[in-house]
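Handout, section B. The chain below has 574 residues.
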Amino acid sequence: MAPHQQRTSTGGCPMMTSTAGAPWPNNQDTKTAGSRGPVLLEDYQLIEKLAHQNRERIPERTVHAKGWGAFGRLKITGDISKFTCAKCLQKGKETPLLARFSTVAGEAGGADLERDLRGFSLKMYTEEGNWDMVGNNTPVFFVRDPSKFPDFIHALKRHPVTHQRSPTALWDFWSLSPEAMHQITILMSDRGLPASLVNMNGYGSHTYSLWNDKGERFWVKFHFKTQQGIKNLTNAEAEQITGRSRDTCGEDLYNRIERGDCPKWSFQIQVMTMAQAEECPFDPFDLTKVWPHKDYPMIEVGEIKLTRNPESYFSDVEQAAFSPNNVVPGIGYSPDRMLQARLFAYADTHRYRLGTHYEQLPVNKPRCPVFHYHRDGPMNVEGGLQSGNPNAYYEPNSFGGAAEKRSAEEPPVPVSGEAKRHDHRESYDDFEQVRELYSKTLSQEERGRLHNNLAGSLVGVPKEIVERAFALLHRIHPDYESGCRKELEGLLSAGEYAPNGMPVTLETPHTVNPAKLQKPTIAEAAAESSTSTSSASSGSSGSHHQEKASSKKKGVLAWCGHNSATAGAPEPSR
């Protein structure tokens, strides 16, 4: 029997201890100097308890902050060995996994049922290391160039002054980013508000690659199709449910697994050869595009099944760190710009949020042996050298330390062209695929709900931004613009709040008047102070200095593109 199991309290329960293992004598009363006196600094139990409480929270994720998770397995039932040598993707193979679902825009305490994307991430604990599939419930995204991702997230998050979400900021960014229209259309359609986590699909979204034993590479898209059926909510239905509970999605997932109603998804892939990629009429690595199923048919691979709830939400879900750079032999990356940036960004955010040792946390730790030459410091919480031999603390060495495996090297990817900042909007058609979705995939009833949902998100947005958005909708299809315009006119004429799937009301401030926030610089403040002093003695001289400071202030506002008399949106600077 382990020592800690032998230590019991008088009531037969496990004995409470300090974190150093000493018995904890009293968890009810603080040590004081007399019954009414001050607290003593020597009450280490109190200090330890408060110190731990102060550190019980870690920074929440910048996006995907609110999440839910479960454990399960990936089972391969199809033969795709001609595409990949990855052991975890061979027919008959079963691999344990962790799944995490999330909302994207909301904070950790946000409502489950907002109109928003949902994160869909998987961590497969394979015999060759961890394979992380970090995706969403939609096959595309709002931007294709990673330099625009921080700007998009800033527009999506709260206004720095009002601390409210701003549809004006969002639509200002979207209306200046035509590549966003594909994702916007999906978001504002029925699928923008899933009824639950198990009634939605998952997608790798990015283009990845597979490679086989012959060194042949294939481009691939990963799909996870729900076996529970697609089910969505209207804005009104979601608002009614949220009025009763903000946590319905997590509750539903947990209860399903507890009662044995384990959710499943079919695992499918689309494959494109290197030669097909060269002839593809669009950029196959563009995250705002899908691959047409008629040209690149779905291939059945297997299924994932979730069977076990977390034992500790913090340890198993909050500390889970998914990184698209975690791949295994037989699976690789692609030239997708967004994917390339995420290879750095995800690992870096984990180092900030969880600490440099994040891959040694139990939920992130590989289930296979790990050998490397990293030394000491906070990234090595387990201590010691993991090279396989204590004398082998450098490489190469003569002491049998861990050695590289050249056969795990990916086949080369041919590249060509100039190294420069290529315009990501040049020669791109941002409307054809959206037009196909709008006019041929969505039914008339679905288009009607799309018009209403999108129009609801435009209420309160300045007219010039609205018209810019409508111009993009018209380029997709005239009916798209006219339908949204009609719905918006109806909402504006009613002048009443209507459920809109977003955390905003008619009273939510979208912007602020910068003139009211303008603060003088240190130099201006000193000049004004000097002016006040001299004006008390010389009168006219002071008024001259005040005029000068005032005109300087107006000059700053004019340079920013603002008029102190209005608080409207500035003209686009693009």
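Note. The chain is about 30% helix and 15% strand. Compare this with the example in section A.
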